[in-house]
Amino acid sequence: MKLLKIHHIAVICSDYDRSKDFYVRILGLRPISEVYREERDSYKLDLEVNGHYQIELFSFPDPRPRPSYPEAAGLRHLAFEVEDMESAVFYLEGHQIKVEPIRIDDLTNKKFTFFADPDGLPIELYER
Questions:
Q1: Which residues have C-beta within 8 Å of that of residue 19, sequence separation ≥ 6?
Q2: Per-residue pLDDT, 67
Q3: In DSSP terms, which residues pair with 115 in a beta bridge?
Q4: pTM over 0.85
């Protein structure tokens, strides 16, 4: 088997409108399609990341909370590459998003930091 690329990443949110606003308006991801699935009382929003990757944002009635600890088993975080770390942090903080202090990766000497989506999913920014 040969994997070609990541096809998509699925994120389940607790408040669809709040998360849609976060991923589209704040993070600037472009909606590709939005579908309401009446039988599941659920939205599915496909988002484009710079023309290359896709995030599927799902809503479900009363989703169970999921513990998110830095070293918990399962998906640890979602990471995006940025050109300028300081500008990205300034932008997020301008939208009242709490961002951790910028750190340097000991292995690559690149800048990185973390913040969270509206449901607490850790998101990393990593400088090119």
A1: 11, 13, 57, 59, 117, 118, 119
A2: 67
A3: 123
A4: yes
